[in-house]
Amino acid sequence: MRASWYEEFGPARDVLKVGDMDKPVAGDGQVLVRIHASGINPLDVKGRDGARWPMRGDKMIPHFDGAGVIESVGAGVDASRVGERVWLYEGNLGRAEGTAAEYLVLDASRANPLPESQSFAEGACLGIPAMTAHGAVYKDGSVEGQTILVTGAAGAVGNYAVQMARNGGAMVIGTVSSDEKADRAREGGAAHTINYKTEDVAERVKEITNGKGVDRVVEVELGGNMKTTSKILKTGAVIAAYASMAEPIAPFPFYGVLMKAPTLHIIGCFTLPQAFKQQSVSDISRWMAEGKLTSRVAGQYILNDIAAAHEAVEAGRQVGSVVVTID
């Protein structure tokens, strides 16, 4: 099979190779998926650069997320799944094999129905961003009637969170950094958008909520935004944070939040309970089938151009996800 891999950490153009590898075989409880599209997340490029995990073999095939068709199944898996269109998550978790290859073997529970209405490229966008967003929005149960602030509402995780919160009956406020991103957030279901570069976020939230504040913050930058967040919480509100890149050490004004008694959840999609992951999978697949969850493909690259695809993700200028097509 054709695949991409790296044998050492480093810049994409220096270490990523494309060539032939042996085709894997499905074992007990597994499915063999013919990959049609492989999604690239910031975590994938950080991993390739050596910033997240050690080498797990002589050759590391990157990427956690993807989409394709089940070609065969191992013992214990219903044979009727052969031919099923699926989206994949955790393909590269704890091992050397990822979705940047023509074929991947993985646990059957990590291959989930992809509706005909969704392209393989769109299905490859899900995985990490959609599972993270679902955890950030629903870890505490229903959001019906709540007011939720989603920071970075046009980003991969952020925009899924906007759509999911809307689907659950919440009123969504999204922060963005441009008019284009504001349009993206509103398309996803944000009732209000705030340009954090030109507007005072805390004042605008108070204005929108008539001074009541928000029930939940889905947070992409915990450390950098905490001073603002502390000003807009309802008593007993929840902060669900999944990143803090600009300010990794996240101090907060203790007495500024004391009277609000918020709960802080650190959301990592890999560490969510398995039962919750299955609920996430169920909701994501159902919403797609109902036309209530969409993905945005910002760029598609062929496998031979995988280094350029990694560089596009590192540049961080796209609104949507970058995908490598493997056809």
What is the CATH superfamily classification of the largest domain?
A: Medium-chain alcohol dehydrogenases, catalytic domain
Helix-strand string: EHEEHEEEEHHEHEHEHEHEHEHEHE
CATH topology of the largest domain: Quinone Oxidoreductase, Chain A, domain 1
- Estimated radius of gyration: 20 Å
| SS elements, strand count | 15
The level 1 CATH classification of the largest domain is Alpha Beta
| Helicity range | 25-40%
Task: Specify the number of helices.
Answer: 11
Whole-Å distance between the termini?
A: 11 Å
SSE-based structural type: alpha/beta
Characterize the overall form: globular
Sketch the major β-sheet. Answer: 7 strands, mixed
Beta-strand content: 25-35%
Domain module tally: 2
Give the low-confidence spans: none
Second-tier CATH architecture of the largest domain = Alpha-Beta Complex
Query: Would you tell me the overall average pLDDT?
Result: 96
